[in-house]
Amino acid sequence: MAAEEQTLQGYIKHHLTNGQVALTDDPTNSFMVLNVDTLAWSIGLGLIFLWIFKSAANKATLGVPGKWQCLIEMVVEFVDQNVKDTFHGKSRLIAPLALTIFVWVFLMNLMDLIPVDFLPALAGQIGVATGAVESSHDVYMKVVPTTDLNLTAALALGVFALIIFYSIRVKGVMGFIKELTLNPFSAKNPFLQALLIPINFVMEAITLIARPISLSLRLFGNLYAGELIFILIAAIGLFQLPLHFVWAVFHILVIVLQAFIFMMLTIVYLSLASTDH
Q1: Catalytic residue among 109, 167, 200, 222
Q2: For the purposes of burial, counting CB atoms within 10 Å of the CB of 2, is it exposed (0-12), middle (13-18) or buried (19 or more)?
Q3: Which one of the listed residues 18, 91, 218, 271 is annotated catalytic?
Q4: Does 218 participate in catalysis according to the annotation?
Q5: Exposed e or buried b for every residue in 27-44, given b needs 16+ CB within 10 A?
Q6: What distance in Å separates the CA atoms of residue 57 and residue 160, rounded to the nearest whole number?
Q7: Structure confidence by residue, pLDDT tens digits, 118-144
Q8: What angle do CA 209, 207, 196 make, to 5 degrees?
Q9: 94 Cβ neighbours under 8 A, 6+ residues apart
Q10: What's the pLDDT tens digit per position in 165-208?
Q11: pTM of the model as a whole
């Protein structure tokens, strides 16, 4: 690491900076950029998820299953049971969606257990060896996609789009509008009900918009905090491995729990959207 980056603040800042590619020539435009590390790792882990389950499906047997098949079947049955218990509508999309969210988010969270210096340092050495960069310090890489708010927000916006889709599909456009304007307060007097419409709309709109915001921030906040602790442990140097192991054992619970919570909230929100009140 360069001399000016030997401070703890510089070390943390380097590890929390995404590798980016600008989409414009304007250096002041920080919006039109791609976080290439987030895209690469999230897409790569998504492909790994598809390969794992496709491979398990191709090798599945009706006889005594192997350990790998048992593990995959346990995950599928676990997700399927939660969907049956929580989702009260009818849709062939929800169970595959829940399975994809749970496993994909879990795999992205799992990257948090890899020592924070290993993959960025490896990428830096490759960059120097190929002549792409002059110093390994010029390479920025965050290997945990869920520590990037852009990705968690994108996942949450995808769920939000499905909420709107199912709400209109089940209740119709007018039914969806009535849900936003006639709840939670109602009155038998038409004039009084008309006065309550703005209040109802504001409250229902806040409730609706809060769902994707809470989904994205919950996942991002927990994983970002966990990654920051790993970085602080790595900054200790010589005695980092015992502390890394202890925190990793505890963090396994966070990794699984956050994937489960994201999946369950998605199912709950889509179940509410699919219920015709």
Answers
A1: 222
A2: exposed
A3: 218
A4: yes
A5: eeeeeeeebebbbebbee
A6: 30
A7: 888 888 888 888 877 777 777 888 999
A8: 120
A9: 83, 87, 267, 270
A10: 999 998 899 989 988 888 888 878 788 888 888 998 999 999 99
A11: 0.89
